[in-house]
Design goal:
With about 80 residues, the chain is mainly alpha-helical. Strand 1, helix 1 and strand 2 form a beta-alpha-beta unit. It is elongated. Strands 1-2 form a two-stranded parallel sheet. The chain has one domain: Rossmann fold.
């Protein structure tokens, strides 16, 4: 799994070129990553999950990890 920060930026483009040349290895190229996603992927790999399971877990964690401070504050303190 190759994680990059921005779609179509230099690291992404180079990884895409390399991935396109490699035919005998499963490669996932994921862009727009956040720290919870990376940590989840590392943990899933250490638990022995396969590349599809790792990718799915990383995406789910990334979505759950994105929060709006004010919305979170309101949900925890409805009186405000």
């Amino acid at each position: 799994i190759v994680f990059t920060d921005l779609f179509a930026a230099s690291p992404y483009n180079q990884a895409a070129l390399c991935a396109n040349r490699i035919k005998d290895v499963k490669i996932q190229l994921i862009t727009g990553v956040n720290l919870p996603m990376i940590i989840e992927a590392i943990n899933a790999r250490m638990m022995g999950q396969d590349i599809e399971q790792i990718t799915d877990a990383a995406f789910e964690t990334a979505k759950v990890g994105i929060k709006n401070f004010w919305d979170e504050l309101k949900s925890r303190n409805p009186q405000s």
